[in-house]
Amino acid sequence: MSIEVWGDLAVDLSATQAIIFDMGGTLYDIRRESVVMVRFFLRELGLTKIDRLSDKQIERLMEPADGWFDRTLIERDVGPHWLPTTEDWIEYDRRLLTEFGVKENADSKARECERKWAAVPVEKRSTLLEGCKPVLEELKSRGYKLGIASNRHNDPSARLAYDCLTSLFGAVEYSCVPGYKKPSPYMLVQVASALRVSPRKCVYVGDSIDYDVEAAMRADMIPILLAWCNQDEASRVAEGTTVIGHIRDILEIFP
């Protein structure tokens, strides 16, 4: 019997019935699809300096525009699956481009980039990480229920269908709206409910301490940190947290 201890709560890993996954940085090759979007925008504008910036540096420069978006959604009191309009994205892009030093004709450039991004096929925006599909298939064959809980504005169904993963997941939840998105436990609890499994018998696998591990603990689920795309997270994880370096390692945990 395997036991993980969180505060005064003992969680029996052998009682696990469902395994819920993050997407970006966990199953797919990007932590945040928006980072890819920013690189795309700035390359289109000829700003080659973007290639010298790390994902972390880009994320920091994105914070003012992200903060504006979050405040706007709270003011509008939108639901969890609210989808931004083209004009919402253009205003976001304009603010974002300004943070990266694009000040002349920022509005027209934002509109141009938004048109080009909308034309990029969904399969070109991210790639399923090597080894994910066979591991997911094996977990399902072992009798575990699988789910998705992802911080994103758009429904990931098309992405999952492209990679022939749809049938593996019994529940998929997504949101990028404050109050619903991680580290809120909302999506995780929604998935557990859809799978008809108590959160106490669910594991949540993700690549971020601040979003994924925190959301799992708030939902009374067992967090597992998958560090293959984000090694820095493993170095600051709390003692007692289960950390794996490759998704296939999860097969050793759940027989």
Basic shape:
globular
Main CATH class of the largest domain: Alpha Beta
CATH architecture of the largest domain: 3-Layer(aba) Sandwich
Question: How many domains is the backbone divided into?
Answer: 2
Arrangement of strands in the largest sheet: 5-4-3-6-7-8
Q: Rounded to an integer, what's the Rg over CA atoms?
A: 19 Å
First-residue to last-residue Cα separation: 12 Å
Amount of helix: 40-55%
Mean pLDDT: 86
Note down, in words, how this protein is organized.
- Strands 5-4-3-6-7-8 form a six-stranded parallel sheet, sandwiched between helices. A two-stranded antiparallel ribbon has the order 1-2.
- It is globular, with a radius of gyration of 19 Å.
- It is built from ten helices and eight strands.
- With 255 residues, it is of the alpha/beta class.
- It folds into two domains: 3-30 and 128-253, Rossmann fold (3-Layer(aba) Sandwich), CATH 3.40.50; 33-124.
- It has helices at 33-44, 55-76, 86-99, 106-118, 132-141, 157-162, 186-195, 209-218, 231-234, 250-253; strands spanning 3-6, 9-12, 18-21, 145-151, 171-175, 202-206, 222-226, 242-244.
Protein topology:
Elements: E1 3-6, E2 9-12, E3 18-21, H1 33-44, H2 55-76, H3 86-99, H4 106-118, H5 132-141, E4 145-151, H6 157-162, E5 171-175, H7 186-195, E6 202-206, H8 209-218, E7 222-226, H9 231-234, E8 242-244, H10 250-253
Parallel strand pairs: 3-4, 3-6, 4-5, 6-7, 7-8
Antiparallel strand pairs: 1-2
